[in-house]
Design brief:
Elements: H1 10-22, E1 41-43, E2 46-47, H2 53-67, E3 71-75, E4 80-84, H3 94-103, H4 110-122, E5 125-127, H5 135-144, H6 146-149, E6 157-161, E7 164-168, E8 173-176, H7 178-193, E9 202-204, E10 207-210, H8 216-220, E11 224-232, H9 239-252, E12 255-257, E13 262-264, H10 265-269, E14 280-285, E15 288-293, H11 297-310, E16 314-317, E17 344-346, E18 353-360, E19 363-370, E20 378-390, E21 395-403, E22 407-411, E23 416-427, E24 430-442, E25 448-454, H12 458-470, H13 473-484
Parallel strand pairs: 1-5, 3-9, 21-25
Antiparallel strand pairs: 1-2, 3-4, 6-7, 8-10, 11-19, 12-18, 13-17, 14-15, 16-17, 18-19, 20-23, 22-25, 23-24
C-alpha cells in the first residue's frame, strides 16, 4: 500500500516555515469542495488518493455495500450461528472518515501541511472507516439462540423413590457472555474487514462457566405439601384420552423450581406427536371437537393449575377453555392450545419447590412440595360463582338416507357461562379475605342431532314434525323411539261359529274398554304423551371435556 510522491519547491517551503512559525494562526488554508485527497491516503482498505470528497464517499459506500453479503460464523460452546453482515446491520462512519482524509495535507498552517506531506512520502496514512454492527440487534439475535449455542448447567435436584426424596447432583455448563461477545465482535469486524474482504470468517464468542444451583441443604427443605389436587379421568373418554393424560403427567413429574423460576406447561409437554408418546383424540377448537394428537392434555394442565392455586404460587398466565368442561367448575379450569394458550406460574417462595405428578386408579394427581411457612390455622379454599348462563337450542337435521326412528348425536350440547372464581382465606374459621382469581367466559355450543326419515309415512312425518315444534329434547327423543318400533297390523274383530262345538269367539268389548285409541294429549300413533304447553327446555349439558 505504500505510495511515493516527489515534492517540488521543498526548500522554499522550509524557508517560508520560519515565518509561519512566528504566528501559525495568521495564515490558514480552507478545504475547498474540489480539494483533491493527497496520494497515499486510505480509508480502511480503500485507496482514496487523488479523489474528491464526493468520489471518496462513493468509493467507501460501495466497499461497505460489498461487505454486506459476507458470511460470519459465531462459534458458541455447543453450536455455531451463521449470519451475513447485513443481518447484523453493518455500517460505517463514512462522512467522518472522508472529511479526515481530505484534511490530510490540506488543512493547517504551511508547516503542518508540509509535515503531513513529508510523512506520506515515508508511509501511507490509513483513516479508520468506523465499521460497526448494531450491537443491540446482534445481542438480541444471539440471545434468541441461546438454547442452541449454550451448554446449560443441569441444576442439582431431587427424585422421589419409595416415598422419600433423594438428592441428585447436577452438572456445570458453559454459556455465552452476550455483552462481552458483542463488544469483541464489533472490534474484530472493524479490524479484520477494514483493510480487505474476508471471504470466510469465524469468531469465537466469549463464554463463562455456569454452575448448578441448589445445595443438598437447600433441597432438603423440600418436605411439606404446599398444594395438592386430583381429578378423575378414567371412564370420561376414550382409552386414547387416558394415554395422553398419563403421558403428559409423566413429563411434568419431578420438576424442581428454584426461587423466582417461572414454569411453562407448554415447554415440558410439547411436541404433541406420536414420537413423543401421544395418540389421537378429541380436543376443543373454535367451539368444535376435533381429533388431534394429545387430546385430553387439558385435564393435566387443569389439575396442575388447581394444585398451584392451593400452593399459592404466582399464576402469571392462564386461559379458560372455549367451552365448559366436566372435570372442573367454571373458572377452575386451565387450557393449552398451540402457543397462544398456556399455563405459567412462578415459585414465589424463598426456597425451592418440587412438582410431583402421577396417575393411579384412573385419577391424575399433582402435589407441590416445598417448605411450609404459612400458619397452620390459615385455610385456603376456592369457590365458583355463575354470573350468567345461556342454554342453547338443539339443532336437528332430517336425513332421508337413514330409516325412520334413527336418532344420531353428532355433537353434544355445551351451555354457555360467565363465571368468577374466588379465593377465600379463613383464619381460625373466620373469613379474612375473598379475592377474585379470574373471570371466565365459556361459549355456547348447541347439540347437533340427525333424525332419520327414510320410508316414513305421512302420518309418521306429521307426528315427528309436531314433536319438533315443541323444542323439548326429551320428548322428541321418546317420539323417535316410538317411531322406530315396528308397526303391528290390527286384527279384524269378527265373530265365528265352530260347527263341531257351537262355541263362538268373544264379543267385541264395548267402547271404552280396552280402547286402542291414543289418550287425550298424546301424539297419534306413538303413545307418547306430549309435553304441557310452556314446559321448560332440557337444561342438561353433554360435556365432552377436553
Amino acid at each position: 500500500m505504500k505510495k511515493f510522491k516527489f515534492l517540488t519547491m521543498a526548500a522554499m517551503v522550509i524557508v517560508a516555515g520560519a515565518f509561519f512559525l512566528a504566528n501559525e494562526n495568521c495564515v490558514k488554508a480552507d478545504v475547498l469542495d474540489d480539494t483533491i485527497i493527497e496520494e497515499g491516503v486510505y480509508i480502511g482498505g480503500v485507496d482514496v488518493g487523488g479523489m474528491t470528497e464526493e468520489e471518496a464517499t462513493a468509493a467507501v459506500n460501495a466497499y461497505v455495500e460489498g461487505l454486506q453479503e459476507q458470511w460470519i460464523t459465531l462459534v458458541g460452546p455447543k453450536d455455531s450461528l451463521k449470519y451475513q453482515l447485513k443481518d447484523l446491520e453493518l455500517s460505517s462512519k463514512t462522512s467522518v472518515a472522508v472529511k479526515e482524509a481530505v484534511a490530510i495535507g490540506n488543512t493547517g498552517n504551511m508547516l503542518k501541511r508540509f509535515k503531513a506531506l513529508q510523512d506520506l512520502e515515508k508511509e501511507d496514512y490509513v483513516v479508520d472507516m468506523g465499521l460497526t454492527i448494531d450491537k443491540q440487534l446482534t445481542g438480541n439475535k444471539i440471545h434468541g439462540k441461546r438454547s442452541k449455542i449454550d451448554i446449560k448447567a443441569i441444576d442439582n435436584g431431587l427424585k422421589k423413590v419409595n416415598g422419600k426424596f433423594e438428592y441428585t447432583a447436577g452438572q456445570a455448563g458453559n454459556e455465552v457472555d452476550i455483552v462481552a461477545s458483542v463488544n469483541a465482535l464489533n472490534d474484530w469486524i472493524g479490524t479484520n474487514w477494514e483493510e480487505g474482504i474476508v471471504e470466510t470468517a469465524e469468531f469465537e464468542l466469549t463464554s463463562v462457566e455456569s454452575v448448578p444451583r441448589g445445595t443438598e441443604e437447600e433441597l432438603a427443605a423440600i418436605k411439606d405439601v404446599l398444594g395438592s389436587h386430583t381429578t378423575r379421568y378414567r371412564d370420561m373418554g376414550s382409552p386414547n384420552r387416558d394415554i395422553n393424560i398419563e403421558t403428559g403427567t409423566k413429563k411434568i413429574n419431578g420438576i424442581v423450581l428454584y426461587p423466582g423460576d417461572e414454569f411453562s406447561f407448554y415447554e415440558y409437554v410439547v411436541p404433541f406427536t406420536a414420537e413423543n408418546g401421544y395418540v389421537m383424540d378429541g380436543m376443543f377448537q373454535d367451539g368444535e371437537t376435533i381429533m388431534e394428537y394429545g387430546g385430553g392434555i387439558c385435564q393435566v394442565v387443569t389439575t396442575l393449575y388447581n394444585a398451584a392455586l392451593k400452593a399459592e404460587l404466582e399464576i402469571t398466565q392462564r386461559f379458560a377453555h372455549s367451552m365448559i368442561i366436566a372435570y372442573a367448575p367454571p373458572g377452575g379450569d386451565a387450557a393449552i392450545a398451540g402457543t397462544y394458550k398456556n399455563l405459567k406460574f412462578k415459585n414465589n417462595y424463598d426456597t425451592p419447590i418440587y412438582i410431583e405428578g402421577y396417575c393411579s386408579d384412573g385419577n391424575v394427581n399433582f402435589n407441590i412440595y416445598g417448605k411450609e411457612t404459612r400458619p397452620s390455622n390459615r385455610v385456603v379454599t376456592f369457590e365458583s360463582e355463575i354470573l350468567s348462563e345461556n342454554d342453547p337450542d338443539t339443532e336437528y337435521t332430517l336425513d332421508e338416507k337413514q330409516p325412520i326412528g334413527t336418532y344420531e348425536v353428532k355433537r353434544t350440547e355445551h351451555i354457555g357461562y360467565v363465571a368468577r372464581f374466588w379465593k377465600i382465606v379463613t383464619v381460625n374459621g373466620v373469613q379474612e379475605s375473598k379475592t377474585q382469581v379470574n373471570k371466565s367466559t365459556y361459549r355456547t355450543s348447541c347439540a347437533k342431532i340427525t333424525l332419520g326419515i327414510g320410508n316414513a309415512t305421512e302420518e309418521q312425518m306429521a307426528t315427528l314434525k309436531k314433536a319438533l315444534e315443541t323444542k323439548d329434547d326429551d320428548y322428541i327423543k321418546k317420539v323417535v323411539e316410538e317411531l322406530a318400533k315396528p308397526v303391528v297390523p290390527e286384527v279384524p274383530d269378527t265373530e265365528a261359529t265352530t260347527p263341531d262345538t257351537g262355541t263362538t269367539t268373544p264379543e267385541k268389548p264395548e267402547a271404552g274398554a280396552g280402547d286402542t285409541e291414543s289418550s287425550e294429549g298424546s301424539e297419534a300413533g306413538t303413545g307418547v304423551e306430549a309435553p304441557e304447553t310452556g314446559a321448560s327446555e332440557n337444561a342438561e349439558t353433554g360435556n365432552d371435556g377436553n
